[in-house]
Backbone:
């Protein structure tokens, strides 16, 4: 038995759960995700960086952001750099920059274009960075 408490007991989502209607539940969530531009209708890549100080990490990500802005097309969204949700891990400060597109191919082509340019960035105080395609956590 599962018990949950909500301020919205008549929400359509809960009605599918109560009726054990997996198909209706899944279709409802997919419709919502399409309206909101979330996967699987939008594709993500996460540019991550870590270093000794958050200032250095954010400086590096801001330089990457400038490069990405200069080369972006209309189908690519480049979001401002932010500290990671778990900002400090293993004595390193972490930050990230999200990329999105409605086309997986366009996103991959864009990354292939900017990747060499990002590799040419002067590493600020031993910043380590990576690009995570279809990240499972942000």
Residues:
């Amino acid at each position: 038995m599962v018990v949950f408490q909500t301020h919205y007991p008549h929400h359509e989502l809960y009605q599918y759960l109560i009726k054990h209607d997996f198909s209706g539940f899944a279709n409802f969530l997919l419709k919502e995700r399409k309206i909101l531009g979330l996967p699987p209708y939008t594709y993500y890549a996460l540019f991550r960086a870590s270093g000794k100080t958050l200032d250095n990490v954010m400086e590096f990500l801001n330089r990457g952001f400038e490069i990405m802005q200069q080369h972006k097309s209309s189908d690519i969204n480049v979001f401002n750099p932010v500290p990671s949700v778990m900002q400090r891990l293993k004595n390193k400060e972490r930050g990230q920059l999200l990329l999105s597109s409605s086309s997986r191919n366009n996103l991959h082509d864009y990354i292939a274009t900017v990747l060499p340019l990002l590799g040419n960035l002067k590493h600020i105080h031993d910043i380590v960075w990576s690009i995570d395609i279809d990240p499972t956590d942000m």
In short: The chain has two domains: 9-41, 43-133. Residues 66 and 80 are 10 Å apart (CA to CA). Residues 54-71 form the longest helix (18 residues). The helical segments are 12-18, 22-36, 54-71, 104-119.
